[in-house]
Design goal:
With 325 residues, the protein is an alpha/beta fold. It contains nine helices and eight strands. It has a single domain, classed as Zn peptidases (Aminopeptidase, 3-Layer(aba) Sandwich), CATH 3.40.630. The strands form two sheets. A six-stranded mixed β-sheet has the order 1-2-4-3-5-8, with helices on both faces. Strands 6-7 form a two-stranded parallel ribbon. The structure holds N-[2-(1H-imidazol-4-yl)ethyl]acetamide and zinc ion. N-[2-(1H-imidazol-4-yl)ethyl]acetamide (AHN) binds next to loops.
Length: 325
């Protein structure tokens, strides 16, 4: 008798919850007030593998064999993803007089479109880990999993997506060389590849509606603040990218916070080529770069597919919501 009572009570409870679920289902808002993404999926595992592939060549320091091998790989990958590829080779003089055999690698999509978006990152890695805690390691080269390879990896995955479905606009991807061979006291010594390209674009009078630089976009819990040159030269692009990230629920990576000015590849693109360009770069709340910046610990252990997904999907959404001509 008692068992029966309990059983019927349990049955009664089940009925109640079933009714309740049904009620919730019926009351559920139609998904209309939820933002519907228009861009194809950015595959974060692919992006992760593109970082690993670059890092496995070793440090991509100009004039090294690893640098040549990785450059060849990037050219073949862009071609594989359907881009029209132009290689721009130049001998550039570093601050210490070293002649760098540099190579800017450019991959273009929808070349007949006049409305163009420029996406860029540097692909070289720093010759000295001068920020390493261990003094003995400061003359060693940097692997640059985050500082270099992460931005390139996000752009390779974007190239793969572009091939699968063309957006309305044209897109140019540039992997700049010789960004990281600089001396901290000499502003001009950084960004040699982008400085060269800004004065000698791959097509005469090349321009774009706006440019987006990716720098250190692969670390766990990355934080991208609104960098000062970006806000000065391209505030509407900053707004577009940050609001798109927020709509896609990636707002925690893109806080509404100002960051200081950074000498980086977007500076010559803004100042010489006059393309309004922003820098998506990892900066902590206390204004320092990502933890292992310019150390021997900038390796695969820092790399997070979640961070690259947030950056890559946001960029794809920006690209696929852009109207072309
Ligand atoms: C300077 O430290 C002068 N510029 C930062 C640009 C940079 C170096 N990004 C990655 N590595
Ligand atoms: Zn660097």
């Amino acid at each position: 008798m008692r068992i029966q009572l309990i059983l019927s009570f349990v049955a009664f409870l089940c009925l109640l919850t079933a009714c309740d679920n049904k009620g919730q289902q019926a009351n559920k808002e139609p998904e209309t007030n939820k933002y519907q993404r228009v861009s194809p999926d950015f595959n974060a595992d692919n992006a992760y593998n593109f970082v690993s592939k670059q890092v496995n060549f070793g440090p991509r320091v100009p004039n090294s064999q690893a640098h040549i091998n990785c450059g060849d790989y990037l050219v073949s990958e862009l071609k594989n993803f359907g881009a029209e590829v132009i290689e721009q080779k130049a001998v550039l003089t570093a601050y210490d007089g070293t002649q760098l055999n540099a190579r800017n690698i450019i991959g273009s999509y929808n070349t007949d479109k006049s409305t163009r978006i420029l996406l860029f990152a540097h692909w070289d890695s720093r010759p000295f880990a001068d920020q390493d805690n261990n003094k003995a390691k400061r003359t060693q080269p940097v692997l640059g999993a985050n500082d270099g390879a992460s931005g390139v990896a996000v752009l390779l995955e974007i190239g793969r997506v572009l091939q699968s479905k063309m957006p309305e606009v044209g897109v140019d991807i540039i992997f700049f060389d010789a960004e990281d061979y600089g001396a901290y006291s000499e502003t001009e010594s950084w960004c040699l590849g982008s400085q060269y390209w800004a004065k000698n674009p791959h097509t005469p009078d090349y321009s774009a509606k706006y440019g987006i630089l990716l720098d250190m976009v692969g670390a766990k819990n990355a934080r991208f603040s609104k960098e000062e040159y970006s806000m000065h030269y391209a505030p509407s692009t900053v707004e577009k990218v940050w609001s798109t990230a927020s709509r896609l629920k990636y707002g925690h990576f893109f806080p509404n916070a100002k960051g200081g000015a950074i000498t980086d590849d977007h500076v010559p693109v803004n100042e010489v080529r006059k393309i309004p360009s922003i820098n998506i770069i990892h900066k902590t709340e206390d204004e320092s770069f990502f933890e292992h910046w310019h150390t021997t610990r900038d390796d695969m252990s820092n790399i997070s597919p979640e961070t690259m997904k947030a950056v890559g999907q946001t960029l794809l959404e920006v690209i696929y919501t852009e109207k072309g001509e």
